[in-house]
From TrEMBL:
Compositionally biased intervals (Basic residues): 183-192
Keyword field: rRNA processing
Biased composition (Polar residues): 153-171
The keyword Glycosyltransferase is assigned to this record: no
Protein name as catalogued: Pre-rRNA-processing protein TSR2 homolog
Segments for region (Disordered): 150-192
Pfam family, any one: WGG
GO process terms (BP): rRNA processing
Family to which this protein belongs: Belongs to the TSR2 family.
UniProt KW rRNA processing keyword: yes
Amino acid sequence: MELKELPEAAIPKFREGISLLLARWSALQMAVDNEWGGPNSRTAAFQLASEIFDFFTLSKETLYIDDLEDLLDKAMITLNTDVQDGSIEEVAEKLMVMHEECLEGNYGSVEKLREDVALAVTVRHIEQVANDEDEATINEDISNMILDAPELPQNSNPTQAATNETKTQMMEETDGWVTVASRKSKGRKKVG
């Protein structure tokens, strides 16, 4: 049985689909972002995209999903990543479906991935704007706390007082209520 070749028009679409799918594979992206495979982790991810394309286009034998899963698993092992969340099988299945569709001139899977990536970028932008607004609010609150800070006694050391204030909580009793203000920063990691 002779394998069908991708039509010329489908080749760039299929390459794009591979790249888009790998960009959405969180296990791969974590391995690349954290350089679990060393400083060349990003290069290894690009190499994986090329190997996947070759798997589909250079093979003269019937394509089996198990062989594709093995290819993906070996690539992740080179990135020092043991994937046990079922995503290798999921990615392999999506690649097989996308290849079949591209053989027929149907680019629905590629278009869907493109829309998903555009949506993810939009959501990330909205989250960034929200985080920036939250950060501005936090900075404003901190400024207000600084402006509302009690006066230091004449004989105190302002540097020492400021250092003590950042290390400990400042408490002020007002009408039986205790107000606690902290200047400790909360560590956040930005993703994406």
